[in-house]
Structure formats: C-alpha cells, structure tokens
Amino acid sequence: xxxxxxxxxxxxxxxxxxxxxxxxxxxxxxxxxxxxxxxxxxxxxxxxxxxxxxxxxxxxxxxxxxxxxxxxxxxxxxxxxxxxxxxxxxxxxxxxxxxxxxxxxxxxxxxxxxxxxxxxxxxxxxxxxxxxxxxxxxxxxxxxxxxxxxxxxxxxxxxxxxxxxxxxxxxxxxxxxxxxxxxxxxxxxxxxxxxxxxxx
Length: 200
Description:
Layout: E1 2-4, E2 18-22, H1 29-38, E3 47-51, H2 55-58, E4 70-73, H3 91-95, E5 111-117, H4 123-136, E6 140-145, H5 157-166, E7 171-174, E8 177-180
Parallel strand pairs: 1-7, 3-5
Antiparallel strand pairs: 1-2, 2-6, 3-6, 4-5, 7-8
C-alpha cells in the first residue's frame, strides 16, 4: 500500500506520511517489495513501524524510537527455529529464511530498525496501525520510503500516483482517497523514467 498523508517527513526515514506499507507476517513481503516495488536486490531489509505502547511485545527496546533510528532485537519468544540454513553457502537462502513471526522485518541477526509510533505525535499513522492490529492481531507494519530505488521520496500527490502506477503496488491511499490498481487507466509503457535518476 502506498500511503500519502499530510505534510512529508523531513529526515532520512519515511515515518508514515510518505510510506509504502506491507504485511510483516508474510515471509514473501520482503522479496516482493524489493523486486516489484523498490526495484532493488531482494535481500535488502525493511524496518517495522510499531504501536509505541505495544513495542515491548515485539522488540527488546525500552526507549522511544519515533524517527526509526534505533536498532533492537526481536523478542526471543517471537523467534522461530531455523532449519539449519545458517550453514548454507547460498546467501539468498540464508536471508529468506523466516526468523520470527514478523519475518518481513526481522534481519538475519534477529534485529530490526524500529519506529515507535505515538498517538500524541503521529495520530493518523497510529490509527492505521491500530486498524491493522484489529484485523490481524499484529500492531506492526513494514514501513519503507515511498519511492523506487534511486529516486527521491515522493512529495506531491502527482509523484505518489506516478510511483504507484509504475510499480506493482496494489493500493494507493492518497489522503482521504483509496485507489485500487485494477480501477486505474492503463499506465503509459514508456520506460525512459528508469534512467531519470542514478541508481544507488
């Protein structure tokens, strides 16, 4: 889901105003978001946004991290036994082995770069996390910047829509509007936009 809400963030991280959100419970979320949306290597990790009041249920982090700058371990009771892939020579096998019940945000060392979302300072994004928790029982979402590899984070509604249509995102939340990909007119097939920015 591309999520565009209010004024954009200032700083190195997407914090719920210009974000791409995904389901952290799915083992395939990381590869899907990397390959079909961000257009980058499948092994690159993603960060979790978590309800601040529920952070301790998921992560061993006892301080606030509202700017997604702190790393902490996933709680040991959430970790899954691995099947011995740690001795494998295949890096992708190692990276793609689910390590917890939130595999899309659990790095190979069982850590995560955490954003704690506080009702007082980020009420709209907090309510999104609350609704996801009501639906799934998990107060955590994958949160990555709303852009593709090599491009700046989207700023305007036009930027958001263009990025949405050029990728395999399913849904775009644009302030009070919800746009489904299948309801949109066919996107232009011009691929020259891929050369507009230098890849990182």
